[in-house]
């Protein structure tokens, strides 16, 4: 099974690949095809139908992480810490430990820069691997009035760089860079000794991640600029469903061979 050392050792050697999953069925399909699978709080939107990622609890994240772990046996599994589950060091450590105690996840991920560094350090000191996440942070979208691209001015650039270094110093084994100007993401990637995983942050990151329902065309409420759809999944499923419905109505299904 892939571990955090496998991910770390790919920096500067081979691009890291990652995708999200929320259940055992898709986790089994994705397993061993990507370096790690993120049980993302994006499930709040694509799975739960909420308008943002804030509508999912830590219990729900652990539930889905358990399911993913049952489906994937090779790729590293990373569980997202949900909104409100790591507001202080004590709470963060408690909930991070739950991931290790109740699931087979190899690491957890949390959003935030410099202010989260002490929390990251506390979790790492308790033996839980942590992936950081800076730049456009979906859990902050509501308070920021939307999804804002980061790294557009000197102040933002400096904060991102300081945050990346602080998270690395705190013990994070990798950092997701989301919605960051490409040239800034390149600079951050070059200055860190740990891998960066990009999403909407340019090609120079050490790896890339996308949400599975975006990349396979199942989530069509909106399409972010950084998403490339590799499959029109929604249309394919509807086409197959319509064929099933038609076969039932015309009594073409089930046949004698499909009946007991």
UniProtKB/TrEMBL annotation:
Subcellular localization(s) per the UniProt record: Cytoplasm
Catalytic residues in the record: 178 (proton acceptor)
Its EC number(s): 2.1.2.11
Cofactor note as given: Binds 1 Mg(2+) ion per subunit.
Binding site for 3-methyl-2-oxobutanoate: 41-42, 80, 109
Residues that coordinate or bind Mg(2+): 41, 80, 111
Enzyme superclass (EC): transferase
The keyword Methyltransferase belongs to this UniProt entry's keyword annotation: yes
SUPFAM superfamilies registered for this protein in UniProt: Phosphoenolpyruvate/pyruvate domain (SSF51621)
Gene Ontology terms: biological process: methylation; pantothenate biosynthetic process
Catalytic activity as recorded in UniProt: (6R)-5,10-methylene-5,6,7,8-tetrahydrofolate + 3-methyl-2-oxobutanoate + H2O = 2-dehydropantoate + (6S)-5,6,7,8-tetrahydrofolate
Sample GO molecular function, one term: 3-methyl-2-oxobutanoate hydroxymethyltransferase activity
NCBIfam families membership: panB, PRK00311.1
Record-stated family: Belongs to the PanB family.
Assembly information from the UniProt record: Homodecamer; pentamer of dimers.
Name of protein: 3-methyl-2-oxobutanoate hydroxymethyltransferase
Organism: Helicobacter enhydrae
UniProt lineage: Bacteria, Pseudomonadati, Campylobacterota, Epsilonproteobacteria, Campylobacterales
């Amino acid at each position: 099974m892939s571990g955090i050392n496998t991910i770390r050792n790919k920096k500067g050697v081979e691009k890291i690949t990652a995708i999200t999953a929320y259940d055992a069925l898709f986790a089994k399909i994705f397993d061993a095809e990507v370096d790690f699978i993120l049980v993302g709080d994006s499930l709040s939107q694509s799975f739960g139908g909420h308008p943002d990622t804030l509508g999912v609890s830590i219990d729900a994240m652990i539930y889905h992480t358990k399911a993913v772990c049952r489906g994937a046996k090779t790729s590293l599994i990373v569980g997202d810490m949900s909104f409100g589950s790591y507001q202080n060091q004590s709470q963060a450590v408690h909930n991070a430990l739950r991931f290790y105690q109740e699931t087979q996840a190899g690491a957890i991920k949390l959003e935030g820069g410099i202010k989260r560094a002490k929390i990251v350090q506390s979790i790492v000191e308790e033996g839980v691997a942590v992936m950081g996440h800076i730049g456009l942070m979906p859990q902050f979208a509501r308070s920021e009035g939307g999804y804002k691209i980061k790294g557009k001015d000197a102040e933002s650039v400096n904060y991102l760089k300081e945050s990346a270094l602080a998270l690395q110093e705190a013990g994070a084994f990798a950092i997701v860079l989301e919605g960051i100007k490409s040239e800034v993401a390149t600079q951050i990637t070059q200055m860190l000794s740990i891998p960066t995983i990009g999403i909407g942050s340019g090609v120079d990151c050490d790896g890339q991640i996308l949400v599975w329902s975006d990349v396979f065309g199942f989530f069509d409420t909106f399409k972010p600029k950084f998403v490339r759809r590799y499959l029109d999944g929604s249309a394919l499923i509807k086409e197959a469903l319509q064929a099933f419905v038609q076969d039932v109505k015309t009594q073409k299904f089930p046949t004698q061979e499909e009946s007991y």
